[in-house]
Amino acid sequence: MTGDYEQRRAALAQLEQAMARETAVTPKELIHARGTLRLYRYLPQTADVYRVPVLIVMSLVSKPYIFDLAPGQSLVEHLVRAGFEVYLIDWGTPRAEHRGLKVDDYVAELLPECVEQVRAYAGADSVSLLGYCLGGIFTALYAALEAPAAAARGRLANLLQIATPINGAGMELQRALVGPGALDPDLIVDTFGNVPASMIEGAFQMLRPLQKASGRMSLLNHADDPAFVKAHLRIVRWGADALPFPGAAFRQLANDFIRGNRIVEGRYEVRGRRVDLGRIRVPLLHVVAEHDHVVPAAASRDLVRLVGSRDKDEWVIKGGHVSLVAGAGAVTRTWPRMVGWLAARST
User: Fold this and answer.
1) Which residue from 124, 104, 122 is spatially nearest to 112, judged by alpha carbons?
2) What is the pLDDT of residues 67-90, one digit of tens each?
3) Is this prediction's pTM over 0.90?
4) Is 114 an annotated catalytic residue?
5) Is 308 exposed, middle or buried (0-12, 13-18, 19+ CB in 10 A)?
6) How does strand 312-317 pair with strand 269-270?
7) Rg (Cα) of the chain, in Å, rounded?
8) Domain positions in the chain
9) Which one of 14, 199, 253, 320 has the fewest CB atoms closer than 10 angstroms to its CB?
10) In CATH, what class is 23-172+260-343?
11) What is the pLDDT of residues 153-174, one digit of tens each?
């Protein structure tokens, strides 16, 4: 019995090593760094490159390798092979000295800096932004603040949003954690500085308390399918690989977004400037999941309604929060449609 256990343990260790070797392997180069931030450019794999580069913006609390999970399971690889010049922001792991970083710093300073780096490196007038989850909040706020006058040509060509929450009142489970009468976000930040990764992971587990048990049952049912096991464990590994949340940004989002709901009400400010999503005029696509437990429809559906673009659309895709950017459904359904939408607007 002991020997069988050791064999299984050794096999699992080998599988973990294999997954680590396969993760984030699309060739890339570092083109800019500041603090923990890293800006990468993925090397072209085709001569036919669209004129408008794509910059991927991730959440602060998750690592960006979900976009480059493994060969054949990589949105980055898919975009590069389709002929796009692709860049990605890795915010990095915040340290104690980063506890004062606010949403304002990301939206009004770090993200614009990366946009300018991409424009200069690609020799492009404008950039398409792809924002996922909290990264989508950042790109939406940036797009509203950077919207040029009607006669001017802006830095932003297209805005592709994935599962972007805008209405804080719709974040029901998050409000149950840090909303009025719940945990005090100010006390959390004053106590810890940066919100620990274990608290972030625990909060996601509270959103779906039976997820781990369900996942293990699914693994048992597919134990004889190595491809399924590897694909499943990749997602599990990424989900457990949470990052600390910079304290000031957490405080700001908890108070002004989750509790105050200032974005959807037009009262949110970044460095003293009020954010009006109606100023966004560029083509916008919002891709949401039908069964998203992290960003439910009540939190995301107002985005398309509020932006001022004439060319705007929302796609509701079968699946959940993560399956929009990874998994078999994303490869076969979501990514090809997104590529088609971007391609038509990137010549």
Assistant:
1) 104
2) 999 899 999 999 999 999 999 999
3) no
4) no
5) middle
6) unpaired
7) 20
8) 23-172+260-343
9) 14
10) alpha beta
11) 589 999 999 999 999 999 988 8
